Structures are given as structure tokens and as C-alpha cells.
DNA sequence: TCCATATATCGAGATATCCCGATATCTTGG
DNA sequence: CCAAGATATCGGGATATCTCGATATATGGA
């Protein structure tokens, strides 16, 4: 848990929003039939929702992944990203510990 | 509670350390006799502990204050800074809410 | 009043972040 | 194998952050 890297990654409203949107699959268009039952959301859907360029969103997802905040799984040409709930909780705890606990 | 501004302010290990140090007055040299009973720590002590220039620390304390994370009180030539516990808790809650709660 | 001390502000060079378009890579269908 | 589509990476211009030294401001003491 690299708090510094995680905070840098989350010090951006769009990346925070993405993490927030990923909380519920219903924030995105329905998955293709062949992807039914798969967890996560593909880059194109996230891009459309965020309204930024493809390269920017791919980069953002890479940053979120490097910080450990999302997990990714490739299925064919698609990469599906989903939240890493454990890491998100760990980040919040580390942050709270540094700020509040002695 | 401007989450964005607070996160930007705390996206810096020295500023986080300062907030951490301010948790306990004993992290700094003893107060001068004439300042006994006063809450907070003067800029010079914080500067010495952080090992950065006077202007940098003054600037940092200004950022922390602007973000609402510390309170300041002037006494003579000295400015005493102390944590704003309510704001720190509010920040953590807002951050947690954006990341975890629906 | 004049000075020394504590803090704040200014201006700037170095570095990092933001976000894009262009291009490269990977994968499936034909 | 090849073309098309999804994603990843590259290169770069604009903007923001980092941190400094120099300077300005404020205050208490001689």
C-alpha cells in the first residue's frame, strides 16, 4: 500500500469519479451478450462516460491499476476493469491512520 | 469542505507529516515561557523539523490553512498553527463517502 | 524611532501532471 | 495471413506543483 502513489492517483476528480462509477455496473451501458457474467467494465464505456480521449482514459486506468486500486482482466480485445475493494479500504485506513491515529 | 483542494494539499508527504506532527506538541521543542498555555506550534519549529526553507514552510502552512486543515493564531511576532480536528475528520469522511459509499 | 526577529509574499527555475493526437500492439473473424 | 476493432504507448504543449532565495510586512524591545 503505497499511500503516496495512491493519493497522487486519486488527486484527480475524473479518476475518483471512475472509481465511484465502477461501484455499480449499472452506471454503464449493458454488457454485450458474450460478456454477460463477466465482472468489470471495458475502457470504451468508461471513456464515453468520462468524455475524455481514449488515450487519456487508458492512461488513467493504467495509473489506477498501478496504484492497486483496480484490477483488470483481458477477454479478447477487451480489458475489463473493476474496483479492488480491499485496496481501496486499505488506502482509506492508511490515510486515516496517518492523519488521525497517533 | 472542498475535497479536491484538501486532497491536493495533502498530496505531499511533508504537508501530511506536518499535520501528523501537530498531533502532539511534544514533537517540537518546548514552548517559550511566555507562550506556555498557548495551543499550536510556531512556524520556525515546524521549519526546523521539516528541514525545508522558511518560505516553503510558511507557504505550506498557508495551503493547509486555506484547505481548512489547520487553524492559526497570531501572538506577537509568532503565528501558532494547530490542527483543525473537525475539518480533518470531515475530509476523511468526504473522501470515504466518495470512494466507498454508494 | 530604529532594529532585530518572526512570518508572509514575490519571482523563478526545475519537475510533474494533464490531456491530446498519432502510432503501436494485441486479438478475433474471414 | 490480413483487416478491423479495442486498448496501450509515445511525444509533446499547456498548466500546476515544488522549493528556493530575495524581499516585504508586522511586532516587540532598546
Protein architecture, described:
The structure is a homodimer of 102-residue chains. With 102 residues, the first copy, chain A, is of the alpha+beta class. The first copy, chain A, has one domain: Orthogonal Bundle (Arc Repressor Mutant, subunit A), CATH 1.10.10. The first copy, chain A, is built from 5 helices and 3 strands. The first copy, chain A, has helices at residues 3-10, 13-21, 43-50, 54-66, 85-99; strands at residues 41-42, 70-75, 78-83. The radius of gyration of chain A is 14 Å and the shape is elongated. The interface between A and B is medium-sized, with 21 and 21 residues. Chain A binds a DNA duplex (30 and 30 nucleotides) through residues 8, 11-12, 42-44, 52-59, 61-62, 74, 76-79.
Amino acid at each position: 500500500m503505497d499511500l503516496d502513489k495512491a493519493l497522487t492517483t486519486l488527486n484527480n476528480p475524473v479518476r475518483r469519479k471512475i472509481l465511484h462509477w465502477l461501484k455499480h455496473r449499472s452506471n454503464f451501458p449493458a454488457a454485450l451478450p458474450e460478456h454477460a457474467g463477466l465482472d468489470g467494465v471495458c475502457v470504451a464505456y468508461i471513456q464515453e462516460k468520462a468524455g475524455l480521449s481514449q488515450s487519456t482514459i487508458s492512461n488513467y486506468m493504467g495509473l489506477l491499476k498501478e496504484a492497486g486500486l483496480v484490477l483488470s482482466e483481458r477477454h479478447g480485445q477487451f480489458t475489463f476493469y473493476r474496483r479492488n475493494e480491499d485496496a481501496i479500504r486499505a488506502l482509506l485506513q492508511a490515510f486515516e491512520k496517518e492523519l488521525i491515529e497517533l
